[in-house]
Amino acid sequence: MKLKFKLPISFVVVSLLFLVGTASAILVVNQTSPACATGDGYYSTIQDAVNNASDGDTIIVCNGTYDEQVIIDKKLTIQGQGNAIIKPSQTTANNFQLFSRKAGGSDNTAAIVVVNADATIKNLKIDGSEISSVPLAYCIVVLMEQLILLP
Q1: CA distance 108 to 19
Q2: Distance between CA 126 and CA 38 in Å, rounded?
Q3: How far apart are CA 129 and CA 132, in angstroms?
Q4: Burial class (CB in 10 A: 0-12, 13-18, 19+), 151
Q5: What's the pLDDT tens digit per position in 99-126?
């Protein structure tokens, strides 16, 4: 005995769109070859990966020291692999776009700024020891929403 199922075409189309629309990408940040992980895109800076990511994506940061300020403005997971460190130099801090006295902003400086976004950061070291142009160098500043830090 054969059973036949008839589904409305709208149900099938909506189901397929749901499956296609929920896939998140893995973006890999790597300073040297080969990359530490397989991904959907490869970048040399964390900020480039953030800029090209969509809500829900995961950014894998390979082993290395990254001299930059990272501004996160979307729902992302950023996960370090090995010894991944964000360690901005004084030269980089002087050009920070947010939270830099030298850039005309606040008296504080931050290596990671989370702005109106949910962000999860795992296994990523943040070192502000080379920033000396401000009285207090923050590692992470969160403006609205939430930040989850995991070991």
Answers
A1: 44
A2: 24
A3: 8
A4: exposed
A5: 544 444 444 566 777 777 888 889 888 8
HSE-up of residue 22 (Cα within 13 Å, Cβ side): 6
The C-alpha R_g of the chain, in whole angstroms, comes to 20
Give the pTM.
Answer: 0.72
β-strand partners of 84: 64
CA torsion angle 128 133 137 139 (round to 10): -40
Torsion of the alpha carbons at 7, 9, 10 and 16, rounded to the nearest 10: 90
Nearest residue to 60 (alpha-carbon basis) of 33, 28, 23, 24: 28
